[in-house]
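can u do me a favor
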């Protein structure tokens, strides 16, 4: 379980550390940094597959991702740095990204560079707990006897040790970080408009994890049933739409989602469902997934849902948190209250208008979780 998340120099997250629980709900007014926190999590997850540089490029490059407020971001004067990290279950990772020192004629001269990466074990970062460390193109790892060994390979500025270094001798923690980051899931790409892939019948196979675009929604729901989760699925649907039942039609050789509703003579096809109903069913497939996520991050899951669905959605999230860690970023007071009342860790963000993001109730750095950034 991830216990501490740290972000520095990303948009309004000038220097933010969060303590996460099994279930964490993040709230705050518009402009307080909720979306920035969500995007920072996506960037950190991208390190696990070597995609962090590309992910930053799609945001407009490192320059557009840096803090643009009225106060100077922390760190040495003149240094451009975006730092991301996490710690949990005796494992930690931090990455430091910056601009090239000598921009040249390459069309990629403005791509951010990975300046340093550190993997450690045993709680908060200490000098003696570092297991692998990359500075610039150079990597060193600690061997089984505890001595440092220089790795012979030279890493490009866009290559992460988490993705490129499969099993450095004496540092299995690198592989553990990779598996941890690749186990994080985000389902914000699923569309519900009339042309949504989730509305179309499709060729289905066992689908333990819902795809990023929801094109395999019917197969993912059928897999939940096949794995013995029909009672959970029926309960989640009935909770939101009393008396309704999901049915997966495979009579044509394709998987097609239908909803049987009281008072209607025939099942309603996915193409006929309202956007809100379809979105709720996407949440059902994600939260009841046969293969639970290491960390499931939901960004404003209430969007497009009727307010009456906040309570059923909250119960669905609580059920999912019994099998894996969940973080919910939400505007919905009803959803936040329902989760907080059941013991969720509540993080209230404040900021905006040129002010850096802060946390409600935190009066100073001593109130923050223990965190130390590695030296570049």
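np, heres the sequence
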């Amino acid at each position: 379980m991830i216990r501490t998340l740290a972000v520095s120099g990303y948009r309004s997250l000038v220097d933010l550390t969060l303590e996460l629980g099994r279930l964490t709900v993040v709230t705050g007014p518009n402009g307080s940094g909720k979306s920035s926190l969500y995007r920072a999590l996506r960037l950190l997850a991208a390190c696990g597959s070597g995609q962090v540089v590309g992910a930053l490029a799609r945001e407009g490059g490192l320059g557009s991702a840096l803090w643009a407020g009225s106060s100077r971001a922390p760190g040495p004067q003149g240094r451009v740095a975006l730092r991301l990290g996490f710690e949990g279950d005796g494992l930690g990772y931090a990455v430091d990204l910056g601009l090239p020192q000598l921009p040249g004629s390459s069309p990629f001269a403005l791509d951010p560079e990975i300046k340093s990466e550190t993997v450690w074990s045993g709680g908060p970062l200490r000098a003696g707990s570092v297991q692998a460390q990359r500075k610039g193109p150079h990597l060193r790892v600690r061997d089984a006897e505890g001595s440092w060994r220089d790795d012979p390979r030279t890493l490009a500025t866009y290559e992460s040790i988490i993705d490129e270094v499969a099993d450095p001798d004496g540092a299995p923690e690198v592989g553990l970080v990779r598996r941890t980051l690749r186990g994080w899931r985000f389902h914000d790409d699923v569309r519900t408009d009339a042309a949504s892939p989730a509305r179309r019948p499709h060729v289905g196979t066992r689908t333990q994890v819902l795809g990023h675009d929801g094109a395999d929604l019917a197969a993912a729901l059928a897999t939940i049933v096949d794995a013995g989760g029909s009672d959970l699925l029926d309960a989640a649907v009935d909770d939101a739409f009393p008396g309704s039942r999901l049915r997966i039609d495979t009579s044509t050789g394709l998987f097609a989602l239908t909803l049987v509703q009281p008072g209607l003579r025939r099942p309603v096809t996915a193409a006929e469902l309202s956007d809100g109903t379809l979105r709720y069913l996407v949440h059902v497939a994600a939260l009841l997934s046969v293969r639970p996520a290491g960390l499931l991050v939901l960004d404003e899951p209430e969007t497009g849902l009727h307010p009456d669905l906040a309570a059923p959605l909250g119960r669905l999230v609580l059920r999912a948190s019994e099998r894996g860690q969940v973080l919910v970023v939400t505007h919905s007071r009803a959803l936040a209250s329902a989760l907080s009342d059941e013991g969720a860790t509540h993080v209230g963000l404040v900021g905006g208008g040129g002010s850096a993001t802060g946390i409600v109730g935190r009066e100073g750095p001593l109130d923050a979780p223990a965190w130390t950034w590695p030296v570049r």
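The longest strand covers residues 113-121. hope that helps!!
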